[in-house]
Amino acid sequence: MNVLVLRLSALGDVAMTIPAIYSVARTYPQHHFYVVTSAFTARLFINPPANIRLIGLTKDESHGVIGTYRLLRRLSHLHIDAVADLHNVLRSWMVDATFRLRLKPVAMLDKHRSQRRAILHDHSCEATPFIERYFDVFARLGLPAKPQFTSLFPDSLPPMPSGLPAKATEVWVGVAPFARFRSKTYDLDAMRELVSLLAARPRSRVFLFGARGQEEKLLHEWAGKSENIFLVAGRLQLEEELALMAHLDVMLTMDSANMHMASLVATRVVSFWGGTTPACGFLGFGQSRDDALSAGLSCQPCTIAGSDSCPLGHMQCVKAIPPSHIAEHIYTSTI
Question: pTM for the complete prediction?
Answer without folding.
Answer: 0.95
